């Protein structure tokens, strides 16, 4: 087995063009797609999401107006004092501001204050990603809604050009998580009174939001990370087609006959192809991720727990691609032609890659496509990589890994079935 | 020790091998001679258990190879007609790979690899990629791989196709040594008469899937004991001369080739005078003339009415 592996690896390494396709291409494409579609990139690799706050609301006036309202209403004095205190200490937008400036979002989000026209221009010029507009009377209306449960409340407006939907999604997520959280806390406050209000103030930090929305749970994905995975899973597919083509050449050059002459079994040969593909895919993904980390700083190399998970996903994915490679070998041998590996390489890989989100980010694709992506191995692996990188644990990626393993077994069985059994007539 | 009985192979519509019976005794060197498409390679692939006969059997020491291919695998070395090695690997890497699949390892492997390289004379080029080899060197590494596990019997399918005379000589000499000095049994396939004449104790001649003649070289040429051939060298083709000569009673066959024509005539017909006479009539320039005893080429011609190679 080691013998077969060594031979397959040597042959692949000697094939310059093939190597370029399998290693350099995904790297270059990662760079192109990551930077071009990124919009979240700067010189230092992954960069902050730049947002501008357009403040059209006069917070103090809003609070004052609310207090005046309260005082002129017919509440018991005690309640009036409580509500006044609450309003003074619990201004909805400043909580969001605090969160945006907190240590947790340091380096993730960069906030600046701009007037509306300046902000719009900056968005147009792609200098900033999104505008968070605080409309007039926001504080007043929000307080009324939150504390008195009166009126419609008010909404923050998030505006952006659409050059980076993913990043905007992230901003959107961060803000809406905060808003949800504030709403939740007010609901509690309304029920529990004063005490609850003060206690929430201390607790309200990004950390406490953990688990509410996955994206904000950890560092959001950069486009570069996204495409590193996208290209890794896509180009692993090419290893499978390459194995098919090389096997065809082995057959065509009669080397396969020679292997049979030695009395080695056909299934040993096929299993050898499986192992070789697995090893090649693992090496390929490893090289890509490390290169992407070193050159683009896409990933931090010293987070062992993170890399452990990535290694596991890669290995399981490699098993599936191994089976796929074996299937292509079997079909090439069966048909005595290179047609099927070629069709796979020049057609099917692109379809798979599209469904699996290697080209256009999944976030932008219709749901149907994302659903279909779960039926191609690269799509499943892609999901696993992304979820793991976003900090969802083993429990989230477990089912995806099982899915890959099932695919690996089914495809391998198919290839055993298709591989010509005995000496052909 | 190796024997085929009524071996037959039919591809869809072509009968590639038709009821072939042949045998090899230990230590013998046997030639299988035939033109393109005669069925030589197909016969070999059935003997070596790579393809299933349509009918008939191959026996190694009485055991059927068709039923149990393993009986022959470790004692058989096959040099395929094609260069069946990895072009992207070096000779050394190829030999190590194939040695290992034959279960050789460690020092034994290194030793056998070295021996094989020495036999085919590629020691100095062992670290070069096979794809950069010359045609002759590729043929030699193709042979070396088959020798690695020191087979008792080696089957070579046209091992000298398309190479220069020097490499060819080298290979022929090597085969002779393997047979005479190491006692290896050889089945040598070719469509070159000279090679088979030089190397083989016994010869099978195949055409259209059938063995059409068999025996030692003397036995085969004695088929033609009643004939001899006259080679006439000409400065250019003379169609009329050919026509005139074939009209002669003693001339059995006239064959044209690039430098002139060849007449197969009844032995002792003393035709030379007549030939010159006719040549003069036809205004043909005879550059040389030569009377030959029969060769295997002539035997083939006699049996099939065709030349071995076109
Ligand atoms: N796989 C195949 N399918 C169909 N026909 C085949 C196949 N292999 C060989 N043949 C046919 O069988 C006949 C014998 O072929 P074979 O290769 O045995 O000839 P050969 O004597 O080795 O010729 P050569 O000197 O050209 O190598 C040919 O007519 C060939 O076309
Ligand atoms: Mg042949």
Task: Record keyword descriptors for this entry.
heterodimer, A: 425 residues, mainly alpha, 18 helices, elongated, B: 310 residues, alpha/beta, Rossmann fold, six-stranded mixed β-sheet, 11 helices, binds adenosine-5'-triphosphate
Structural commentary:
The complex is a heterodimer of chains A (425) and B (310). Chain A contains 18 helices and 6 strands. By secondary structure, chain A is mostly helical. Chain A has 2 domains: 233 residues, no CATH class; 169 residues, abc type-2 transporter like fold (3-Layer(aba) Sandwich). Chain A has a 4-stranded mixed β-sheet, sandwiched between helices. In chain A, helix 11 runs antiparallel to helix 13. Chain B is of the alpha/beta class. Chain B is 35% helix and 29% strand. Chain B is built from 11 helices and 14 strands. Chain B has a 6-stranded mixed β-sheet, with helices on both faces. The model of chain B has no long low-confidence stretch (mean pLDDT 88). Chains A and B meet through helix 1 and helix 12 of A and helix 3 of B. The site of magnesium ion has 4 residues of chain B, from helix 1.
Looking at how many chains there are and whether they match, the oligomeric state comes to heterodimer
- N-to-C SSE string of chain A, H for helix and E for strand: HHEEEHHHEHEHEHHHHHHHHHHH
Specify the overall morphology of chain A. elongated
Structural class of chain A: mainly alpha
Strand content of chain B: 25-35%
Assign the structural class of chain B, choosing from mainly alpha, mainly beta, alpha/beta, alpha+beta, or little secondary structure: alpha/beta
Q: Give the names of the bound compounds.
A: adenosine-5'-triphosphate, magnesium ion
């Amino acid at each position: 087995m080691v013998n077969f592996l060594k031979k397959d690896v040597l042959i692949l390494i000697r094939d310059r063009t093939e190597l370029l396709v399998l290693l350099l291409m995904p790297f270059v494409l990662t760079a192109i797609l990551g930077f071009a579609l990124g919009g979240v990139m700067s010189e230092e690799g992954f960069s902050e999401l730049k947002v501008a706050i357009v403040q059209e609301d006069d917070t103090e006036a809003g609070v004052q107006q609310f207090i005046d309202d309260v005082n002129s209403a017919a509440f018991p004095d005690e309640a009036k004092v409580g509500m006044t205190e609450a309003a003074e200490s619990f201004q909805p937008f400043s909580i969001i501001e605090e969160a945006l400036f907190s240590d947790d979002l340091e380096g993730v989000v960069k906030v600046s204050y701009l007037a509306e026209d300046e902000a719009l221009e900056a968005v147009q010029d792609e200098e900033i990603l999104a505008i968070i507009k605080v409309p007039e009377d926001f504080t007043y209306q929000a307080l009324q809604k939150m504390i008195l449960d009166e009126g419609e409340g008010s909404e923050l407006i998030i505006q952006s050009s659409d050059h980076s939907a993913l990043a905007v999604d992230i901003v959107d997520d961060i803000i809406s998580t905060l808003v949800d959280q504030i709403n939740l806390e007010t609901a509690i406050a309304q029920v529990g009174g004063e005490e609850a209000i003060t206690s929430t103030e201390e607790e309200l930090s990004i950390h406490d939001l953990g688990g509410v929305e996955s994206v904000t749970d950890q560092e959001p994905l950069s486009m570069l990370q996204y495409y590193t995975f996208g290209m890794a899973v896509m180009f692993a597919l090419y290893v499978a087609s390459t194995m098919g083509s090389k096997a065809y050449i082995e057959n065509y050059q009669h080397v396969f006959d020679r292997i049979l002459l030695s009395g080695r079994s056909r299934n040993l040969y096929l299993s050898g192809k499986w192992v070789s593909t697995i090893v090649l895919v693992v090496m390929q993904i490893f090289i890509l991720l490390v290169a992407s980390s070193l050159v683009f700083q896409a990933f931090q190399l010293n987070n062992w727990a993170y890399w452990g998970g990535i290694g596991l996903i890669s290995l399981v994915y490699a098993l599936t691609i191994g089976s796929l490679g074996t299937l292509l070998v079997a079909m090439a041998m069966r048909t005595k032609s290179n047609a099927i590996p070629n069709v796979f390489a020049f057609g099917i890989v692109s379809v798979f890659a599209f469904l699996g989100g290697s080209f256009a980010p999944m976030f932008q694709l219709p749901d149907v496509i994302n659903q279909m992506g779960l039926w191609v191995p690269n799509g499943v692996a892609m999901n696993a990589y992304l979820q793991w990188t976003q900090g969802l644990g083993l429990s989230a990626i477990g089912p995806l890994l099982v899915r890959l393993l099932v695919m690996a077994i089914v495809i391998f069985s198919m290839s055993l079935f298709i591989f010509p059994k005995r000496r052909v007539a | 020790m190796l024997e085929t009985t009524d071996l037959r192979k039919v591809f869809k519509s072509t009968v590639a091998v038709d009821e072939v019976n042949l045998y090899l005794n230990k230590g013998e060197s046997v030639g299988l001679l035939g033109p393109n498409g005669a069925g030589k390679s197909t016969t070999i692939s059935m003997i070596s258990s790579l393809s299933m006969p349509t009918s008939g059997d191959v026996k190694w020491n009485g055991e059927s190879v068709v039923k149990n291919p393993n009986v022959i695998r470790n004692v058989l070395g096959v040099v395929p007609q094609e260069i069946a090695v990895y072009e992207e690997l070096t000779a050394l890497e190829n030999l190590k790979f194939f040695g290992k699949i034959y279960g050789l390892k460690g020092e034994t492997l290194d030793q056998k690899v070295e021996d094989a390289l020495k036999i085919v004379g590629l020691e100095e080029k062992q670290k070069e990629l096979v794809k950069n080899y010359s045609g002759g060197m590729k043929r030699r590494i193709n042979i070396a791989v088959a020798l690695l596990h020191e087979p008792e019997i080696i089957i070579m399918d046209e091992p000298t196709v398309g190479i220069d005379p020097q490499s060819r000589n080298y290979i022929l000499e090597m085969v002779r040594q393997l047979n005479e000095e190491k006692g290896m049994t050889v089945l040598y396939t070719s469509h070159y008469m000279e090679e088979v004449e030089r190397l083989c104790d016994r010869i099978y001649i195949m055409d259209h899937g059938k063995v059409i003649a068999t025996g030692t070289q003397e036995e085969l040429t004695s088929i033609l004991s009643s004939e001899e051939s006259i080679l006439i060298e000409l400065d250019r083709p003379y169609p009329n001369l050919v026509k005139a000569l074939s009209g002669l009673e003693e001339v059995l066959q006239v064959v044209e080739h690039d430098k002139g024509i060849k007449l197969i005539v009844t032995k002792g017909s003393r035709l030379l005078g007549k030939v010159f006479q006719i040549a003069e009539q036809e205004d043909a320039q005879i550059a040389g003339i030569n009377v030959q005893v029969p060769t295997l080429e002539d035997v083939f011609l006699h049996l099939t009415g065709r030349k071995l190679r076109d």
